[in-house]
Specification:
With about 160 residues, the chain is an alpha+beta fold. About 30% of the residues lie in helices and about 30% in strands. Strands 1-2-3-4-5-7-6 form a 7-stranded mixed β-sheet, with helices on both faces. Strand 4 (about 70-75), helix 3 (about 85-100) and strand 5 (about 105-110) form a beta-alpha-beta unit.
């Protein structure tokens, strides 16, 4: 199926679609849940992917320090996986980091092959103390984390 996917900055009316997608992943234990309030508060960090005017995916770029951002809440709706939408969202977010002059983009993921295909390298997650103290400290998997850290340097 050939479809045109466009990415754009999220707006307040996207909160319900974001919430539903993220909640679906969170229920499977593969993404941290986000409340509607949190989504609205951080809406300016989110990107929406659309195909045929329909919401098909999202991602967020969260600043962890002066030289580091994290791609988080990256997801694609059922029925649209494997079509390159996730890669388009990652590309959009990496371009945002570049525009902001941030040299390092990281993610914690179970899909390391996907990120490697998009130019990231698997790294030791302990090199990201900013991440550990921002989110991991509140995570129930903190001491038995099975996610894989990936990093892309934008030199």
């Amino acid at each position: 199926m050939n479809m045109t996917v466009t990415c754009r900055k999220a707006a307040a009316d996207d909160v319900d679609a974001l919430y539903e997608l993220i909640q679906g992943y969170a229920e499977k234990g593969i993404m941290l849940p986000r409340s509607r309030e949190a989504l609205l508060r951080y809406i300016d960090t989110f990107v929406i992917a659309e195909a045929g005017g329909q919401f098909v995916g999202c991602g967020s770029l969260f600043r962890l320090g002066t030289d580091l951002v994290e791609i988080r809440s990256l997801g694609v709706t059922d029925g649209h996986k494997g079509m390159g939408i996730g890669s388009r969202v990652v590309e959009f977010l990496v371009d945002e980091a570049r525009k902001e002059g941030i040299p390092k983009v990281m993610a914690l993921t179970y899909e390391d092959k996907f990120f490697e295909k998009n130019g990231f390298t698997v790294v030791n997650k302990e090199i990201f103390p900013e991440k550990v103290w921002t989110d991991c400290v509140h995570c129930k998997k903190q001491h038995c984390c099975d996610e894989i850290a990936v990093l892309k340097r934008l030199d």
